[in-house]
Design the sequence.
């Protein structure tokens, strides 16, 4: 556990170097089987750990995560270290700057252990869209870890790192967390800086932590959260205090049960949700039935808004200033050749879709309409949160599926995010907490939703679920 | 695009578009210089450069 | 230019072009703002540095970079809006998507249907008012140089080199309504706009340096018929070139239409050396820029206090300066003296001379005639000039004598006008002495006098010349003319 490591290192019961060596040896043992990482930064990590140890030995102050290893999804800029977004178009690219979250982690003393695999440019729900090969689910290596932050989820699930960072645009932290049996958090939009996060959909993307415990997830969120002047969409507030909420319990809280939730959850998953409600009731919460009628349109709205923004965000990959260039006789041809060679099929598909949704004559019918649907969904949530403090749904309708199961059926792949997408559209926080198992003994995650800046309520419920599931104390 | 027909049925008159999930206004920075990137580091990552500039093939078929 | 309602300005008879054609011109002016840093990031907004040094992740459009709006750019844009009598409104930014190597993100952050400043106007010194549709904020692109071709232009080049120092520099795009009816008005518009921008500190607005760029939209039609198809003229790098380009393009279009042809909607490049425009790019349809609201930026809604502060702190604009001088001297605001003196920013100096007790009209004329290179704060102390104006006004010096003393004041950076006049032996002659000299001159040159009496005004010169010679320049020319006229009886 991250907090235990931090305490032990600070108290000199163990060196940061010993910690990192332990995790690196675990990676050595099993990474070839799992392929969670695009890059393991063994040498760099040891140097970082040694520096922490030197500070501690000299009595210099160290941060709250001093000596804690952390794996970073490969779409966050790390200065001088490959940042590929699992795409050929960025293979070998070393950014000349750090993402804000990286700076905050380093200041906190965390030791970056590697960059993790993902669906290319965060587009996918299985990490099968990576240009560098898939990642395997540590719970069952014939199955996907989920996506797009599959590598970061698998790294924590396999014990390669106590915590990791992912990004979530339509469920890309929560869904792999559920499939791998770990905790995953998507904070309120604007709580964590996006500066240095390679953008997929600017109005939906958020960075968040994976951890083995709800408390660690809360601690990480505190460290990376809070106002950043380099991000105009960053909420002008200091990072909230979240750790105390984890053990506060749910006595007196009202938890929403969505009676008109889109169908599609596997029976075992539905059963786990019922058990979760029962557990919270036992713990002193009241369950309130609510409806969110616009939710059935969320998938459509998302698959217009996200690709539209993505088509614009990914236009900068043109072979001019960085990354892959395929030479040609003129610049226009160079653009075409570079992007044809550099982007995978799913990325190309979404760029085409997004371009179409924004084009003259179609804007109002597609992108323009989707923005209005988004407001309807936000209004539904607003009404619901007058009656409840948090909402529970399954995170994923299914447990981890086998490789190749959904690759040929994009619609079925998109449906993996049906419960997670609404919160991205609304900009609300949500987390996935492991809550028992489903079919084939595979992990099931329960999703806790809260209103904007409602992280404290969310962590209260998450902590209670964890206790009920028999997890951390 | 046929999958998107479900939202056609919705009555969206009077519903304003939502471009941003969290309503912020007037986020600005002061007109103060911040450190720049190292030119050598940036050009080293460029696919092609010449005379301290980024080099591209002839620009034809594009808007001026 | 937008497709908003057509202009309501109608050309006067003498403004129509040969053949009865009405010229319709709208101007799009891009202005680089005088901020320290760029519009959306903190790298320097500076001209002339080594290539690619004023760069940061935002300027280069690197993955993960995010824009943050420069408050000073908004302040300067608001000053422009107030100076151009616009309405300032809450606004948002849009992405304008297109590929070009000097566009690092492959989109430009600009303003589309909800810009900062709308519905303004600019009053030309000559009196016509030109509507200003909008003045919005947007970021500049990098600069490309094309290598290998004969002319340094794209066509025929082997490759291009891109410098991103300029990328991200704040621009305000000022779009006029198609209210301009003559090329002189177009030049006046740009000249006045330049003066305004400089006075309010928004930009140094130098066309030759690229901190002010002008594109002209030109069309012609017969009055009473719908507006014609317009062409956009680019690469106009001076106010003089603007006039020439409009004149050429108008004639070109008229020639086409007169011979039964049709104007193609296109962008044309002005070639100043050859004195002609030629096709750059045909515009069949409006380019699809797939505009959508910029999700990385939030709306800008300047509050009333900020807008009021901008209004309150705005310096006196050229039009107001001309009005002030007009009130002071009685000269028309459209007179050359006033236009020239305000252009040189010497209006305050003239006021100072008047404040020091000087004659305002004479001060204006002296400054117009003798202070061309003196700048806004001439070396000659206001009271020294004031003293000279009074000597002339009171008849102690003739106009010619005053002019001589004036040049000496200018050369020496001041002085005692009376003392200088005395040293030169200047004194005005009294009128009866002048009369006597006029009569002598008339007697000495009866031929010239006869012609003058017959109405040949030019013949006066011979008589006046004799009087000046005889008086060694002390006679006041105006007095001489008056005497001659009364002798003539006219």
Sequence:
């Amino acid at each position: 556990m991250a907090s235990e490591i931090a305490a032990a290192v600070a108290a000199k019961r163990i060196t940061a170097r010993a910690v990192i060596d332990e995790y690196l040896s675990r990676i050595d043992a099993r990474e070839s089987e799992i392929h969670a990482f695009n890059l393991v930064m063994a040498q760099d990590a040891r140097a970082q750990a040694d520096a922490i140890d030197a500070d501690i030995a000299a009595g210099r102050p160290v941060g709250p995560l001093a000596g804690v290893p952390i794996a970073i999804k490969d779409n966050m800029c790390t200065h001088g270290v490959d940042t590929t977004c699992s795409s050929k178009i960025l293979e070998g690219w070393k950014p000349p700057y750090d993402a804000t979250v990286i700076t905050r982690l380093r200041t906190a003393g965390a030791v970056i252990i590697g960059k993790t695999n993902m669906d290319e440019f965060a587009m996918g729900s299985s990490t099968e869209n990576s240009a560098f090969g898939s990642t395997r689910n540590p719970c069952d290596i014939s199955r996907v870890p989920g996506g797009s932050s599959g590598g970061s989820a698998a790294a924590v699930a396999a014990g390669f790192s106590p915590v990791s960072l992912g990004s979530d645009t339509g469920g890309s932290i929560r869904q792999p967390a559920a499939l791998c049996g770990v905790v995953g958090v998507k904070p309120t939009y604007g709580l964590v800086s996006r500066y240095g996060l390679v953008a997929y959909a600017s109005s939906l993307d958020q960075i968040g932590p994976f951890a083995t415990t709800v408390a660690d997830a809360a601690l990480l969120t505190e460290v990376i959260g809070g106002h950043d002047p380099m991000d105009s969409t960053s909420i002008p507030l200091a990072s909230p205090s979240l750790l105390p909420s984890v053990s506060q319990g749910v006595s007196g809280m009202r938890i929403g049960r969505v009676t008109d939730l889109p169908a599609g959850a596997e029976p075992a998953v539905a059963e786990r949700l019922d058990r979760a409600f029962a557990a919270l009731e036992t713990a002193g919460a009241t369950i309130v039935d609510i409806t969110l009628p616009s939710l059935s349109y969320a998938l459509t709205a998302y698959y217009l808004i996200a690709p539209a923004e993505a088509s614009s965000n990914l236009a900068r990959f043109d072979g001019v200033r960085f990354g892959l260039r395929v030479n040609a006789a003129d610049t226009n041809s160079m653009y075409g050749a570079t992007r044809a060679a550099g982007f995978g099929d799913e990325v190309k598909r979404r760029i085409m879709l997004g371009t179409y949704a924004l084009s003259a004559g179609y804007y109002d019918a597609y992108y323009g309409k989707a923005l209005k649907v988004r407001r309807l969904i936000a209004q539904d949530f607003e009404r619901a949160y007058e009656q409840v403090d948090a909402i529970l749904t399954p995170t994923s309708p299914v447990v981890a599926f086998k490789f190749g199961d959904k690759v040929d059926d994009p619609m079925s792949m998109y449906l993996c995010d049906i419960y997670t997408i609404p919160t991205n559209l609304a900009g609300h926080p949500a987390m996935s907490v492991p809550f028992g198992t489903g079919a084939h003994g595979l992990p099931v995650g329960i999703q806790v939703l809260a209103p904007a800046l409602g992280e404290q309520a969310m962590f209260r419920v998450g902590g209670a679920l964890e206790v009920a599931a028999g997890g951390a104390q | 695009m046929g999958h998107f027909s479900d939202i056609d049925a919705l009555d969206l008159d009077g519903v304003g578009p939502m471009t941003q999930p969290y309503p912020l206004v007037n986020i600005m920075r002061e007109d103060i210089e911040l450190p720049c990137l190292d030119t050598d580091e940036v050009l080293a990552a460029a696919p092609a450069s010449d005379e301290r500039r980024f080099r591209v093939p002839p620009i034809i078929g594009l808007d001026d | 230019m937008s497709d908003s309602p057509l202009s309501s300005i109608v050309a006067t008879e003498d403004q129509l072009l040969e053949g009865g054609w009405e010229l319709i011109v709208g101007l799009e002016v891009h202005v680089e703002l005088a901020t320290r840093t760029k519009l959306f990031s903190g790298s320097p907004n500076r001209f002339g540095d080594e290539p690619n040094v004023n760069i940061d992740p935002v300027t280069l459009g690197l993955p993960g970079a995010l824009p943050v709006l420069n408050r000073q750019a908004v302040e300067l844009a608001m000053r422009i809006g107030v100076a151009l009598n616009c309405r300032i409104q809450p606004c948002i930014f849009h992405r304008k998507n297109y590929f070009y190597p000097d566009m690092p993100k492959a989109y430009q952050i600009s303003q589309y249907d909800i810009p900062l400043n709308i519905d303004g106007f600019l009053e030309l010194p000559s009196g016509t008012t030109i509507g200003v549709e909008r003045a919005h904020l947007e970021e500049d692109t990098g600069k490309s140089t094309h290598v290998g071709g004969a002319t340094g232009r794209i066509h025929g080049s082997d490759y291009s080199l891109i410098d991103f120092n300029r990328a991200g520099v704040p621009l305000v795009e000022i779009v006029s309504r198609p209210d301009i009816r003559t090329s002189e008005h177009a030049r006046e518009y740009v000249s006045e706009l330049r003066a305004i921008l400089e006075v309010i500190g928004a930009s140094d607005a130098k066309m030759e340096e690229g901190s002010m760029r002008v594109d002209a939209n030109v069309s012609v039609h017969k009055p009473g018929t719908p507006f014609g198809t317009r062409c956009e003229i680019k690469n106009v790098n001076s106010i003089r070139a603007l006039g020439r380009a409009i004149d050429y393009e108008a004639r070109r279009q008229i020639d086409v239409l007169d011979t039964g042809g049709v104007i193609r909607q296109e962008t044309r490049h002005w070639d100043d050396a050859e004195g002609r425009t030629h096709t750059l790019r045909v515009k069949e349809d409006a380019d699809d820029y797939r505009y959508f609201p910029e999700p990385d930026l939030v709306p800008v809604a300047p509050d009333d206090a900020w807008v009021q502060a901008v209004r309150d702190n705005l310096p006196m604009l050229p039009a107001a300066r001309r009005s002030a001088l007009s009130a002071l001297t009685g000269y028309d605001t459209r007179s050359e003296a006033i236009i020239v003196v305000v252009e040189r920013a010497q209006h305050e100096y003239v006021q100072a001379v008047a404040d020091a007790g000087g004659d305002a009209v004479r001060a204006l004329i002296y400054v117009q005639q003798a202070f061309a290179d003196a700048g806004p704060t001439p070396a000659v102390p206001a009271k020294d000039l004031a003293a000279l104006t009074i000597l002339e006004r009171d008849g102690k010096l003739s106009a010619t004598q005053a002019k001589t003393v004036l040049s000496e004041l200018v050369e020496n950076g001041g002085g005692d006008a009376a003392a200088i006049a005395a040293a030169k032996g200047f004194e005005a002659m009294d009128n009866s002495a002048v009369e006597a000299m006029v009569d002598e001159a008339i007697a000495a040159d009866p031929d010239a006098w006869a012609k003058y009496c017959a109405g040949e005004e030019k013949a006066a010169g011979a008589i006046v010349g004799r009087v000046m010679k005889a008086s060694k320049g002390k006679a006041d020319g105006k007095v001489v003319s008056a005497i001659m006229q009364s002798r003539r009886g006219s």
